[in-house]
Structures are given as structure tokens and as C-alpha cells.
Amino acid sequence: MDPETFRRDLEAWLDANDEELSPPYEGAGSMDEQIAHYSLVKRALYDSGFGRYGWPESVNGLGGSPLLRAIVGEEINLRGLADPSPWTMIEVLAPTVIDFARPEIAARLVPPFIRGDEMWCQGFSEPDAGSDLASISCRADKTDGGWAVSGQKIWTSFIQYARRCVLLVRTGEPGSAHRGITALLVDVDSPGVSYSPIETMHGRHDFAEVHYDEVFVPDERLIGEENGGWQVAMDILPYERSTTFWHRGALLHRRFSDLVAQVAASGDRSDTAARALGQAFQSLVAFRSRSRDTQHRLAGGQQLGVETSIDKILITSAELDLFKAVRDLLGGVVEFDDDLAAAMWRTDYLYSKAAPIYGGTAEIQRNIVARRLLDLGPES
Amino acid sequence: MSELVEAADLALLANGFEAAMAEAPDPGEADQALYDLGWADLLDAAPTQGAAIAFSALGKTNSAASLLDDVVAHALGMDISLALCVVFPAPHQTIPPACRHGNAVVVDGLVSARVESAATAVLASEAEGSVGLATIDATLLQGSAAGGVDPGGAFRRVTAEIPADAISLMANQGTWDSAVAAAQVALAHQLLGEARWMLAEARQHAIDRVQFGRAVASFQAIRHKLAESLVLIEGAESVAQGCLHDPDPLLAALAKSLAGQAALTTATHAQQVLAGIGFTAEHQFHRWMKRTLVIDTLFGSAGSLPIEIGNKLLSQDSAPRLIQL
Ligand SMILES: Cc1cc2nc3c(=O)[nH]c(=O)nc-3n(C[C@H](O)[C@H](O)[C@H](O)COP(=O)(O)OP(=O)(O)OC[C@H]3O[C@@H](n4cnc5c(N)ncnc54)[C@H](O)[C@@H]3O)c2cc1C
Fold first, then answer.
1. 3-state DSSP call for residue A228?
2. Residue in chain B lying closest to A364 (CA)
3. Is A33 considered catalytic here?
């Protein structure tokens, strides 16, 4: 399917179904409302066929280029129809599960995920293993027909809504670093899984602390090889930095355009205002341009790798520059105002502070660029 | 716009240009060498692509060839030649370099080294919101030696008052806006060439230079400066390359602004990594750094363009979606 035709058809369909697809709540809505509406939008897209393009037939997709998935998320975010965060999990986790899980498992479990019937989450970080992911200690030991998982994870986003979790566990000796890690697909409702949500500074319960106590995971839920989890995790990262970034870039574009309209309406024509807007736009365009190149490389069948750290640094700058401009130009909106629009600016402003932290911190990305792209040799 | 040149031919031309620029330090000789290599035909066949390879070669070699005269004259619809030069806007500006005042035209702009050998200069002037194009005798602008921070770059400032009877008005073919855009994209490639040279120089120095018993490249502060430079360069490069498929003047301004920011930041970081040796006249670094300062000011700078871009967005009440999948 040709991407331009696809986009036109999708736009027409979105126009025709605008009422059903628009959020029923005002402003940002509660998390429960957001998730419920996200599922509704996802299901409508799937049932109309648009949400099945770009996914392989083996998981009930309709095939075609991953560009088509980038386009769907872009249009949804430009129109503000659904919150992008839960959607992110699909684009991050599903491609890797399709590549590495047993085909019959992927064929059975992935379709309800991409249809929006259920959510999944990503259990990588631990209290003592953040940036140093290879040092995780949550263990899985061989038992009859599967694995017994025990240990702790933290910052697991959306687990309270999730049916399954892509979990990294230690299967090698303690200290076996990246050589002794395995990826498992765990049912969140398994006996022994417990979690307590953690409130974020933007007033939501985005993520949770999770305990695994002798949780049984059958053999068939192995993703990749035993002790091959590092390769699975490394496969996920470039996906995290291609389609999802394009989606988030569309959201940033919409918010930037809102900002321009609001500043224009205020009559502020100062050089200060123009410069802040110009700089934010410039960062956004640099990111979008780089990300477009990345989408085309992915669609062309190229293997994405460490060079996507550049995309990550660029989208982080774009997000930080945009919301800095919001705070500078909409005087006091972040600090004081309480109407719906102000509350959304405040939430988005605060959430932008997470951009240099999640998905590999700003410092870790620079380490990767220095080591892998500039070939500067080892750090001291 | 027909962009017909095959990638393999372009790579060959790029190598030829770089070699010619490296061998001919004098701007006049470099211009001649590039004309001999078919620069004029290339600009005609593939203006954006051709300018991209020629200007990134300019940046990498730090050559003072006056190709900007050709890019602007070509975009204004003129037949280019070594006898033709152009008056560019004043530093940091994108508006025409001249104003009509009654019978005279007051010029405040920049010219390249080519002004000294050219017969004719193209002069754009503004009156009551519209841009008029004219040619004047280049001798009217000659004689001001190239000074400033980068004499080797051979751009110089000209201020003059030209009487009306010395001006021949010409019919507008290309618009001023499209000439500005063409210049901005070309200069973006030059700035990125400058930046890549400075980054490569700093990278090699960091690997070779040992302090505290190890290469300074092993220190994270050094690594992150170089990494940030590369990220800015790659972001700007992507936008500059995107201009090949999209002639939008706003995208051209963004490309120039981003490239200026990338090159200026890279210059700062590279100099810090080079440290003492980078502050000498002996090391080549200062030539690239000074050229970067000069090229940044041409056709709007990293400092001035964000204001222009922001004002344009404010006048439209929204942000256009420039980059399409
Ligand atoms: C909103 C949000 C959602 C998240 N969702 C999930 C999720 O769903 N699943 C999941 O598994 N995780 C998730 N995370 C966790 C995230 O991946 C980690 O926070 C991140 O990897 C950093 O780990 P840390 O917080 O432990 O910081 P640390 O690793 O402790 O880092 C502390 C500081 O030290 C710096 N630092 C560390 N190592 C180096 C180094 N080698 N060189 C230079 N500086 C260094 C870091 O950059 C940082 O500034 C989420 C985080 C956020 C904020």
C-alpha cells in the first residue's frame, strides 16, 4: 500500500469518525479515562483495518511497510485523539516479541495487544540497576516446565493496566553481566506478582514498584534464547527510537503549534518571543528530519542500531526546548493557573523533564555516541 | 527544478572539487579551477544538489572560492560567469543590501573576493516593500581590501552611495526570496563541512594527546563535548539534505540556522579539546573557526534567524508541518 494513499484514506476515515474517536473528557482526563479511550481508538483502528497495516500477517496484520504504522500514530497525535504513552508500549515491545518469541506464541498473544484489547509493560529497571542494565539481579531459576522468577523491578510503566510484561531476568551466575540475562513474557496476573504504583511528580501513577515471588513462567514464554536476553533488549532499543519517536514528534508538533497560536493571540511580537519560538521550532524540525530518515531506513529493511542514540538526543532537546518556551512565553501558566488548558501545559511541562531520563539517560546516549559513533576508545 | 545527477557522478565531482580547492588557495584561481571542472553546468543541471557538494567541499577545505556569487546570481535567473559578482546582505541580514533613496541607492552589504576581478555586480534593493534588481559596474565597489577576522576568506563589507544613472534595472526572473533560500542551503552545507573538519581534528587530537597517563579522549567531559557536536551536525545535515526535496524557504532558513548553531558549537567544543595548541596561529584550527564566524553571518545567522523564523510563525498563527514522511 502506497503511504500517501494510505494517509489520505486514513484522514478521510478519521474525519468521518471524528465524534466517536474524540476523547469524551475535557482536558487531559484521568489516567483511567485516558486508557479506556486509548483502547477504544486502538480497537476502532484495528477493526477498520488501518491499525493492522505495517504488521506482519503472522500476527494477523495486513502487511506493508512500518511507515504505515508511523503514519497512523502521527495522525492520531496531530489530532490529539489518544494519549501516546500506552501506545508506545506496542511499538516498543511487539516488533521484538514477533522477532524473538516462538512463532505460535507471537501469533496468539500479539494480536490482542495491537488491537488495544490489552496492554503490556516492560520490566527492565531495578532499584540497583538503572543505567547499568546489565547488572540486574531479579532471578529466574529452572523448574519443571518453566522458570521460577523472584526479585524486584521498579519504574514499570502501566503495569496496573497490563496483561503481560516483557521481563529481563538473571539466569546466569550473579556477576555474569549481559551474558547471563534472559527475556521472558510473563502474565501480570500470575500468582506471586505484586506491585504498588508510584506517584510521579506530574501527579499520575505512571509507573510502579513490582515484586516477583516464585512466579512460574512456562518454557514457551521464553523470548529468544536462554541467556540471550541482552540481544533481545538491544533489539528493542532501536524500535523504541523509530516509530514511537515519530508519534511523539507529532504530539510535540501539535503542542508547539498550540503555543504559537496562543502567543500570536496574546499580541506578543517581541524579539524574545520570536526567538524562543524560532529556536523551539528549529529543534523540532531537526528531530523530525532525522527521524524521517530513520523511518525510511527501517522501512527499507535496514537494521537500526546505535546511531538512533542521535535521534534520542534530538527528540529530548526538542521536547525540552518546546516546554522551556512554554514556560518563558506563557507567563505564569506553569506555576499558577488552574484552568484546563493551563493544567495541560503544566502536566506536559513537568513530563518533559522525564525525556532525558527514560529510555537511556541523556548521559548514557552521549556515552554511546562517543564510544560507538566517534570511536573514541574506552572511557577512563 | 531538475535534479538529474547520478550519485556516482556527484561523488566523483565532489572529489574533484575538493582536490581543486585544496590546490588553489587564491580565490580567483580556485574559481577558475572549478569552472574548468564544470561547476557552471552542474549548477544549471542540479542547482541544490550541485551547490550541496561544492559548498561542503568549500567547508572541508576552507577554500575561499567565490561560489556564493554564482549560486545567488543563478537563483536570480542570470547567466553566471567569472565576470559577474553579487552584493550580499549586510551581516546577519536576509534583506537586500541596498535601499533606494530618491535618485540614489545606498548600499550596505558584503562582497566576495570576486568583486576585484568582475566587470558587473548584481545589486538587489528594496523600496516600499518590493525588491528591485539591477546591475552596476563592479569598479564602483572595488578597492576595499579584505580585512576583518578572516582575510583569507576574502569576504568584505561594502558601503557606497550609487547615483541613479549608474544603475541598470533588470527584469526580475528569480525572486529575492528564492535567491536567499538557495544561498542559505548552500551555506548550510559549507558550515557543516567546516564543522566536520573541526570535529575530526579535535577527535584525533583527543585520541593522540596523553595526560594523567591516558588519552584525553578517555575523559567523559571531553567525550560528551565531541558527542554533542556530532549530534548537532547530524541534525542540521538531515535538514540541509531535506532541502534537496523541498524548496520551502522556511526550511532553507532553518537549515542555515541549525548549521550555524552546529558549526559554532563544534568550534567552541573543538577549541576546548585542542586547548593551548588550538589557540595558536600555528595550528590550522583557527582558520576554520574564523571562517565559521564569517559564514554564519551571511544570509542570516544562528543568532538572527530564529527571530525571523519565529516572526514568520507568529504571522501565520501556527506552525507548518514541514517534514513529511
Ligand atoms: C517516566 C519514566 C518511565 C519509565 N518507564 C520504565 C519502564 O516502563 N520500564 C523500565 O524498565 N524502566 C522504566 N523507566 C526507568 C528508566 O529506564 C531509568 O530511570 C533509567 O534507565 C535511568 O536509571 P536510574 O533512574 O536508576 O538512574 P541511574 O542509572 O542511577 O543514573 C543516575 C544519574 O547518573 C548518570 N549516570 C549513570 N551511569 C552513568 C555513566 N556511565 N556515565 C555518565 N553518567 C551516568 C545518569 O545519566 C543519571 O544522570 C522509566 C523512567 C521514567 C522517568
1. coil
2. B224
3. no
